[in-house]
Every structure is written in structure tokens, then in C-alpha cells.
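#lab-general

N.A. 3:47 PM
ok so I finally got the sequence cleaned up, no stray characters, all 213 residues accounted for. can someone with queue access submit it? mine expired

B.Y. 3:52 PM
send it over

N.A. 3:53 PM
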Amino acid sequence: MNWLNSQAFTLLGQHIIWSDMIGNILGLITLALGWRRSLLTWPVQFLSGLVLFIAFYGHLAGSAGKQAVVMVVALYGWWQWSRSKGRSADGHITPRFATWRERGAMLGAAAVGTVAVALLFKAYPSLSWDPWPDAYIFVGTIVAMYAQARGMVEFWIAWLLVDLVGVPLNFTNGYAFSGFVYVIYGALVLWGMRDWWLRSRNTPQPVLEGAPA
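B.Y. 4:20 PM
back already:
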């Protein structure tokens, strides 16, 4: 699979490698499917992680490990959406706003997780070239995917916050295609957030598991 790390083409003076292009195109499709609340969101997300895992495995252990975590969360998302009872009339998951407790828990997990992962990256420099922003993007991605798996509108906000750091970081590190894709992510995030926001207000909210009847 060495071809995944070979150059596909040159764009505006930037060398685009196959794994960067394929993985991020799949990521873009994943976000579009998430907008449509399609169950296919998660298999495509898993495939995107798998492509990047194969590309990184053997020479970028840290990056490969991060993709392994992404794949695990994708499996959780698929399981969560498959079994969800909170579906709308079209058969798809019903978006909802997170409770204040859930928001606090996600913010706390993001903060603690970012610090912990950044310190890990600093202790083992081979895992990351840029520990703090890399940790922020990695943890933010996991939090966003978790919120998406739970059908929370806030997952779009989490993705937007990831984009704000991901765009300049990818261009700085030479991953031009990733940078361009993150710009498109930003546009999709804004439209997707609007759609989920309106749906959460126009559809009856599902009863959460464990909530009193």
C-alpha cells in the first residue's frame, strides 16, 4: 500500500499525496451524509479512518493510533444510530440540543483530553510535530463524533471549532489538500448546523434513555 503515500498531483505548488486526498474526500462525504442524518455516515467515516491508518501505519505510529481511535468512535456512532429510538418520520435520527450537563461534560472532557494528549505528544515527540494544536484537533474530532452519535446539534459547533485550527495547521504542515477540504468542511458545517437546528425545533424531541416517563 505504499502508493497511498505517493504523490497524486501538484496543486498551487503543493504536493498532494493519495492518502491525504482519499481520506479527506471520504471525510467530506461523511460530513455531507451526517447533514442528511444517513446511517451511511459511519461506515464511510470508518473507511476514511482505515485509509489513513494504512497510510500511516509503520512510520507514523501516532497518526495511525489516532485513526484507530476514530474508527472505534465510528463503530460506536453506527451502533448508536442503528439502535436509536429517537427517530423522526423520515426514519432518520432526530436532532436535539444537548442538556447543560452534557455540554459541561463535553467541554470538560475536551479540555482535560487536550491537555492529556498534548502532554503525551510532548513526552513522545515522534507522535506529533505540533503537540498542542494536534491534540486540540484530535480530541475535538472525538468529541464532535460523540456528540454526532448522540444526535446533538452541538456537534456542528464542535466541528467548526476544530476547523478554525485545522485549516491553518494543515497548510502550515504541507497538507494542502487537507487544508482546502477543511475550508469546504466549514461551509458544510454552517449549512448542516442550520438544518439540524431547524429540525430540532420543528420535530418532537425523543425521550432519552433513562429519562423519567
